[in-house]
Amino acid sequence: MSDELVHYAVADAVATITLDSPHNRNALSQQLVSELFERLERAGSDDAVKVVLVRQAGTVFCSGADLTEATTVGMEEGAKRIVALQRLVATLDMLAERWGVMTPDGIVLPDFLTHSVLAPIVGARRPSVTTSLKRLAEAGTVRRRADGRWVLGRRP
Asked: CATH number for the domain including 89?
């Protein structure tokens, strides 16, 4: 059985992204959010995809934040981590749109964005930003080049 919580399929120019975490009614855990962003990026980079459909397996689309995950590190800290991940993605997208340089590897951000620099931008403490960047890197959404710059996009 797969540990994947978000499935991806393409047929007739339609990418179908399915939330499949019935044990918590598709609550927004760090894994589900990371996989969802990765699937959306995958659909966005696929020239064969013209429409993206996000749906659920089962009867509930999404029950909100995964509060049980939040309690493993404390409710407040867990919620901050989820918010940090969402803010980080939005910040990286905004920076890429404004100052990013398109390359064959993806969109390269021109500044050396350290975790300490990103933390105040997204309004989170450094450990939350580090965790969020790790999740995004695991999903292939971002990666760090040898020169320290972040690249948004799929790994080559």
From this structure: 1.10.10.10
